[in-house]
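G., the chain you wanted modeled:
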Amino acid sequence: MTAKSGFVSVVGRPNVGKSTLINSIVGQKVAIVSDKPQTTRNRIQGIYTEPRGQAIFIDTPGIHKPKHRLGEYMADVTSRALREVDVVVYVVDLSASVGTGEEYIIKNLIGIDTPVFLVPNKLDLVNEEAVFRLIQDFSARMNFAEVVPISAAKGNNLDKLKELLFCYLPEGPLYYPEDEYTDQTERFIVSEYIREKALYLTREEIPHSLAVEIEEFETRNNLIYIRAVIYTERDSQKGIIIGKGGSMLKKIGEMARRDVEELLDCQVYLELWVKVKKDWRNSEIQLKNLGYRR
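Predicted structure as tokens:
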């Protein structure tokens, strides 16, 4: 059997389970997960290889109307991801209804030539009637190449989704070695792990004005030393991340270090600092310095 190899863009509203889906298929944590919208900011690739071939999944920022330059960057990343792939997987939340956000996404999808799969997620949380009703609502607005209800968290129907994806991917050689599962550098993944823990622990107290930069990443005396800076836009946010007596920053560091040690398979010393960069999301220079390049 001739191998197939191609690119799959995963799109949808923020917080519908796009990153969870990619992590579940790839079998590794390549994209951070948070219950906050717009957690994913970059074009993150997860690589899935099996006897049928290789599918490269692109985890895009949730499609939304931008409110600042960072939002414009994220929208541009998603727009390019729709045009440069072989299949688009449109993930929707089965527990939600078709609102203005979904209408906005469908409007963006109707104009592309790429096959679009409708993938209703969180199948484990609703009944069959709700699944049928949602599929009807979405199918009345757009013709989809395939419809595959799943549970990304539980793994329900993922084999069926993979089977159909390989039917649509073109024949060709592998783009990446078989043992690779992402194209992201270790420095980038580590910075994302830190950002994930900060978002998780601060909950609603910290909006998406948070960024992480790795300043140092080197081996010292049989361990890896990492110094990272967490940036916020206001002094009040800095105080929340540090916490009373440094308690919050310590928790963020402890949780992130466990994930980093699992990733790198070695002992890690993680040093965290918190600094304020006023209005960095609207500064082209600051965005480029933090790795957000169009």
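The chain has nine helices and nine strands.

Shout if anything looks off.
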